[in-house]
Amino acid sequence: MTTEVKAVTPTYSEAFQSGVREEMNRNKKIFILGTDLVERGGHFAQVKGIAQEFGLKQVRDAPISEAAMVAAGMGAAMYGCHPIVDLNFIDFSLGAMDEIINQAAKIRFMFDRPVPLVIRATSGVALGGAHHCNSLESFFAHTAGLSLAVPSTPMDVKGLIKTALRNEDPVIFLMHKKLSGIRGEIGDENYFVPFGKAKTIKAGKDAAIITYGYSAVTATKAAQALEAEGISVEVIDLRTLYPIDQDAIDAAVTKFGRVVVLDEAPLFGSITAEIAATASERNFKSLKGPIVRVGAVRAPLSANPAMSEAAIPSVDQISKAVKQVMSY
Amino acid sequence: MSKLDKSTALALLRQMMVIRDFEETADKLCLRGKVPGGMHNSSGQEAVAVGTLSAIAKDDVIATTHRSHHHTLAKGYSAKSVMAELFAKSTGISHGRGGSMHLAEVTEGHFGGNGIVGAGVGIAMGAALGIQHIGDKKIAVGFVGDGGMNTGRTWESINMASIWKLPLIILVDNNQYAVETFVGRVTGGGDLAKRASGFGLPAYNIDGQDVLEVRKYVSEARERALAGEGPTFINALTYRYYGHNVGEKGQYRTQEEIAQWRTTQDPIDKFTEVVISSGFATQAEVEELRASVRKEIEEAVAFAESSPEPEIASITQGVDSGKLGVQL
């Protein structure tokens, strides 16, 4: 009798490592800089072992100087390198916002020079309170010149980081901290996920939830709960917020006419507002009722776990939103 | 640095004359509404630019400030292409997309002026990191004003350059006024070189009105950088003859103070004396040089005036590569 050994699939963080390793092997101009990368491997083990494998020139531990870290990456990118600046938490990008928004994003337009730079960080709500849980997607998506990846699976993490590292644009690469340990298949070295291509993660017949990041998980849970009540919901994971897959959004609106848009950012001014507004402008006549948005309350995140959880969409809230669009 | 020879001396003098004539001419044109968005006149600061740029290689990198016409002209760009950019015309160095504050030619090592005080040192530091990573024999110079010396990120970048021994020169083009605020009123400790030396790099306060002194210090700093010994901080004391921006009618300094600098510390007058006393040119030959400069600037104005506007239809072109969505 033989024992079948089932290989353990990689985690979301390991998927990032895998994509970066493959691209670094191919292109020595790729390097990573950030805080606590060499020994700790980053706060989410996202680059664990890479310094030991590639050396301290390819993985640099930086002082806690966010503005200088991004400036270093940007200047080196303008010079011809392809740096990954790892900020660990996107909340920390606020100390480098001029470098990101005013500088890196605008150089190509003004100076006709690409800035091949990846800024990686975690985003979204987990424990940690007001300074470690922000969802700042709309800041970046709003800025011309920036692209924004928000993967929800190991497969997409690897496929998207590889695409980012083969291109020449400044990319904000946001990984949801609550997904760090999830496991899943990843692609081989020739597997790339293009930006601006959404993925249907659950097919449905009655309505669609358009979402991204960790909300893809809660949306799927809500869709499963709704199946029991006889409502068949499609869940669409955008995977990138800029470029955004407008074709997939249009298709969902025209197919179902009943759409929920979901994320963890405070509703006012969020990317969900952009999606809903554009969808209704483009396909108003296909809608059976208003698009319903589900997002966070307008409040900083609390340290209290129950309060923090209450700030963001629950499975129940999402289910209610679907029932609302089904009521029209 | 080798002993001053005739051709070098005349080149330095002529370049300073080009800057002075360019700025005085552009100032008048700006008052007539020819420079959209206005400009910052660098008259009085010629020796800092010419001393620095003459001491570095053509393909060394610079990143600079909102007041950067003089650095750009001294890097070797024609008065035509700079004037046309002030006019925001398509023939300008940044194709009319940058304007007075965003002169750049990144492929040749000019990483741009900047509208944000304190941004240039970080970009130059990043370029220096790129140079070090790739292993090129080049250096980068980050220009900053006395105003930028009080931004936190400038010091983050100086620290980073120091710990990583980056081939960088931090060149303070210290005209003593941050808009209307005298440097002495807002600079704790007062002595910028002393402040910088705390970051563990050689730091000097020098006479920014003496082109040969600037040239000597920059040349030595460049040798250090190329030898892998890291960055150098140079605070060049200078003075701007005009307001922060064209048209300013400030009351923050006296006419006597301005006259004192103009009559006793003018960098062109001082160096003209050196040129004549060294027997490199007669007074008449100096006047001939001035006349040839006048002609060059007149031609630059005519070129800028007659140049076409950028194509409005190109307004969204070059924002990003547009290739992230391509399936690899």
UniProtKB/TrEMBL annotation, chain A:
CC cofactor: thiamine diphosphate
Keyword annotations from UniProtKB, A to Z: Oxidoreductase, Thiamine pyrophosphate
Gene3D superfamilies: 3.40.50.920, 3.40.50.970
InterPro entries: THDP-binding, Transketo_C/PFOR_II, Transketolase-like_Pyr-bd, Transketolase_C
SMART domains found in the cross-reference section: Transket_pyr
Transketolase-like pyrimidine-binding domain residues: 10-182
Pfam family of the protein (one): Transketolase_C
Coiled coil: none
Any one Gene Ontology molecular-function term assigned to this protein's record: oxidoreductase activity
PANTHER family: PYRUVATE DEHYDROGENASE E1 COMPONENT BETA SUBUNIT, PYRUVATE DEHYDROGENASE E1 COMPONENT SUBUNIT BETA
Name by which UniProt lists this protein: Unannotated protein
Source organism: freshwater metagenome
Automatic annotation (TrEMBL), chain B:
Dehydrogenase E1 component domain boundaries: 14-312
Biological processes annotated in GO: pyruvate decarboxylation to acetyl-CoA
Gene Ontology MF terms in the entry: pyruvate dehydrogenase (acetyl-transferring) activity
InterPro entries: DH_E1, PDH_E1_Alpha_Subunit, THDP-binding
Transmembrane stretches, start-end: none
Keywords: Oxidoreductase, Thiamine pyrophosphate
Tagged with keyword Oxidoreductase: yes
Named cofactor requirement(s): thiamine diphosphate
Protein name (record): Unannotated protein
